[in-house]
Amino acid sequence: MQRIAVEDRRTALLAAALHVIGREGMGAASTRTIAAEAGMPTASFHYVFASYDAMVEQLVATVLDAQAEAVSTSVEAADTLRGFVEGALQGWLDRASAEPDAEVALHEIVAWSRSSPGRRHLAEVVYARYTAAVEAFMQAAEARFGVRWRIPAGDVARFVLVLTDGVAARWLVDRDVAAARTALALGADALLALAQDVRP
Amino acid sequence: MQRIAVEDRRTALLAAALHVIGREGMGAASTRTIAAEAGMPTASFHYVFASYDAMVEQLVATVLDAQAEAVSTSVEAADTLRGFVEGALQGWLDRASAEPDAEVALHEIVAWSRSSPGRRHLAEVVYARYTAAVEAFMQAAEARFGVRWRIPAGDVARFVLVLTDGVAARWLVDRDVAAARTALALGADALLALAQDVRP
DNA sequence: GTCCGAGTTGGACGACCGTCCAACTCGGAC
DNA sequence: GTCCGAGTTGGACGGTCGTCCAACTCGGAC
């Protein structure tokens, strides 16, 4: 095969891994399958990545970065607290259904990493980044709409993740976007009921 | 090994599978690992079960049966709608934290079955049974407290599963029962806000 | 034109997988 | 006491896995 910059190989392999995991799950995403999907010999995998686990770690970071940016653009135009909350939740869903491979991969990798002590930190990192992202949204909501919460901010953030995780779990099985949208709307109502002192 | 009734072997292997999946995840739950956990030679596995997939299918049925029964006993004493809703949700959490292997196994198996077309029906069966269980609870609530809902019953049932799935996803990673309890209490409030016409 | 080192990769390593079968054991009917 | 069929299981089958190395290629410095 012709010579390719290592960064380009890395990018191609990460994209291939995303497709394979999205299509056939973590169980089928072997080094051989991923390299074949990228049109490379198997040995190229370990020329680019130190190990399989290292590739997964990079994949998680890449997917989380792209997701955080996509969702944050969906609340830029919000001019009410309701618009902001609904925009964030529906923006997350729009992103998930637009890039299902990324959403599937995230859940596959969390489930995969949960059971092995040496990989458990990966699942915790995912939730730490989710929590940080939600808290950044909450601070933006406070700055823009003066919202305060009736309960500790940490409990609100956790409840947001309960909503997205719960909707995702079901959507992963039935891929029913309309039903997911309805459930998220109920979630938005529940979140707004926790707000007080909204600046007019 | 001494002669053992096939049903006893089946029971022992299912219990062993539950332990292995709960401790090390689906990826480590091979026929060899499970048989060893049950103190049997590997070949016993295929003397009892037609295939690995058939064992998983039986395991799901067993776990769902036990779970449904455990939760239903936790609302028997409820004498208000709030007590009923909170009792059901907290009863589910009590069951999950009392038998973590069963809860872990259910999520591991759903994730495992999602990606393979030939196994996808298993994930759908799990949600069909969850939905049926929740709808049975809702009918019991209507009979006992005369409750009606502001939105379609199907949307309420789906929202209940969003709550349990979302709480479970996080609990599987951090095992924080207190935080799960708080999140479920918020979920109960959200559900009660969807109720109307409660008989006094 | 020569050479070097980075890029590339076929193929092997040991391990584990689900499944299966031939050979063995042994309780109980006769 | 004999025998049979159900119960039991060691070991093998072909497959996949992550990883690695020796051997090859080739762009670019000299």
Automatic annotation (TrEMBL), chains A, B:
The HTH tetR-type domain, residue ranges: 7-67
Key words, A-Z: DNA-binding, Transcription, Transcription regulation
DNA-binding region: 30-49
PROSITE patterns per record: HTH_TETR_2
PANTHER family: HTH-TYPE TRANSCRIPTIONAL REPRESSOR NEMR, TRANSCRIPTIONAL REGULATORY PROTEIN
Name this polypeptide is given: HTH tetR-type domain-containing protein
Superkingdom of this protein's organism: Bacteria
Upper lineage: Bacteria, Bacillati, Actinomycetota, Actinomycetes, Micrococcales
Species the sequence originates in: Amnibacterium soli
